[in-house]
Amino acid sequence: MISLLIKKITNKQIILFNKHRNVLPIVCNKENRSHFYFLDIDLFWRYIPFKTSDKRKHKIMYVLLNVINPKFIISMNWITARESLYKVWTAKHPQSKFIVVQHGAYVGGFVTNIPHRYTKCDVFLTWGSYFVDQFSKYNHKKKVQIICYGNPIYNNFVRENYQYKNNNSNKVLLLPKATDYQNLNQLYKLIKKLNELNFEVVIKSHGKQGSNELNTDGTLKYPKIKGVKQINGVLYPILQSNDYDFIISDHSSSLLDTIFFKNKVLYFDPKNKVNGYETNYSNFLVNLFEEDFSSISKNSFYELLSIENQEALLHNMIYMGNNSIDSKILSENKK
User: Fold this and answer.
1) What is the distance between the alpha carbons of residues 145 and 142, in angstroms, rounded to a whole number?
2) Cβ–Cβ contacts within 10 Å for residue 70, how many?
3) CATH class of the domain comprising 160-317
4) For residue range 36-71, what is the model confidence (pLDDT) as tens digits?
């Protein structure tokens, strides 16, 4: 076994990982790299012949896992056939564990997609105690370790270095999730109102917005947003610059990103309650969509802001960790 040989020579073990933005901070952690060798598992999949749908591809990967014998396999989900294979393999090799890192806030903290509720891994690293509670309820009969780990991306930042903006610039940023025709019309109503109040409105669209993804009837699933200034680029530097009086976001993780970097935020979510659920965001923030924003004044937008409430939301959902694969995970791995 390669892993045992390497451990004997270097006292390090092998971790296979999925190259995802929420996994990479763990991979790049200096302390982790002093104890483990990290190998990109996607490279193995890429160079195995046969199509993904061909069972022979998965059989070859299973053999490779036997040869490599990794201590951990780290991914950002348990949904695909590949990830099911990891769980099957670790079930046969209890000294190894399949670890999944939470990679989103779901729908404002509410898990609407049933397959995402029920873990198919050995260890689930969540963003905070709120998610530990949620997934512990869903999986109380399963043998899985659900750990309060923190958002790996946030863990790399010192939040005390950021400050809330005191002055006004009349600039507003919109950060919507990928939006369909129905909800896009609601967003246009909001943009129209902001323009009427002479706000300088810009929008950073979701990566899927304007893509060629189609509905079953052949129409565009996420049509291109028109009639408003668009900005591109990586989100975090935009949030770190703190150029906007406030940022309007929906039930996506971007709302938590906004708060983390100490931007003032308004919550605007046409889907909340209408679809039969209530997001955790709405337990802390006023949902602008449910207000009569068509008759709201400019000052009222500012009055709806609450740093106290948004800080309470962040504290409720996010734990600050250090991204180390520490004794807590290793000790729980032995149970």
Assistant:
1) 9
2) 28
3) alpha beta
4) 999 999 999 999 999 888 999 999 999 999 999 999
